């Protein structure tokens, strides 16, 4: 039996898909590229934006065109959103599996429909030199624009001991970088007794040898100066990179979004991080065109982003999600689409210039680059501070290794250089 898997959205989805792929392979199923003909297609979907839902529908149609006899199993947030809305699918070969326990639901479906016994391994088999480890699921911080708390309800943390076993297993398999991820990563441990995310990081660093650790994303309202102090004290095994979603630089809009912090509080966190680690990369997400966003709000966001000097910005036009407060506001005070698009274009250009400046600040300096791929004699990977770095690698023998690279040039997309002696 041939199975194709497509993963959309967050790193949590990627970690969950990795576990399913391991189960398929261990059961003797042939895992094929999603673009190939398969008997079953699994789409691990995202519903954070309207664009994410559009892509989900697109991949469903693509799978059905490729093999009209195949079954398409839709899991993830889009499946839950559609079930929540009572959305009925006209195509009987598409099956919504909307349980919170998506991996177990897939196993049950395969057993009942095909008589195939899938067994979820304790940990996914690594297929790359970077691995995503899910440590937490769920969010109950109801930002006014976000569906996620309705779709991934309640905070559920894995035990630190179980996470440590997975990380030690991955390290033994040759993984060099572990990215800790969660629906709302900073909530890790809230449902456990006296353990926090920084406690987990200290445990992992103390009980592993060479693997380096990266955090996928941290909400600004969930961590403190003490977290930053302990985080950077862990040394070079911790990637100096913090993804802190801003969403807006206007305090009026931040309050309307129910984000739980002001621009000043956000700035204090960034300033503290840079005082402790001057070369830290601060990446972010920004939403423009939020209902009621005036030009002065947008300009405040532009100025704030320039002041923060982000190393990378993901800029999105506001996308109304049915069931949220902002969905109703959009009807009354929505920003016209052409204006949203203008603001997106402008802020993307600001982001590119900030990325260029950050990348070029490392010309003549050394970065530790995890080489992840090689094509046409050029190795490509990420540095510890999440810069995409290209380096000549004629034989492709450096894939999966962390190498010292002297940066010789840079632009807004990344940097390039050559490997130097330790």
Automatic annotation (TrEMBL):
GO terms for molecular function: 4 iron, 4 sulfur cluster binding; metal ion binding; tRNA-2-methylthio-N(6)-dimethylallyladenosine(37) synthase activity. The keyword Transmembrane helix does not apply. Residues 125-357 form the Radical SAM core domain. Its EC number is 2.8.4.3. Residues 360-421 form the TRAM domain. GO terms for cellular component: cytosol. SMART domains: Elp3. This is tRNA-2-methylthio-N(6)-dimethylallyladenosine synthase. The lineage of its organism: Bacteria, Pseudomonadati, Atribacterota, Atribacteria, Atribacterales.
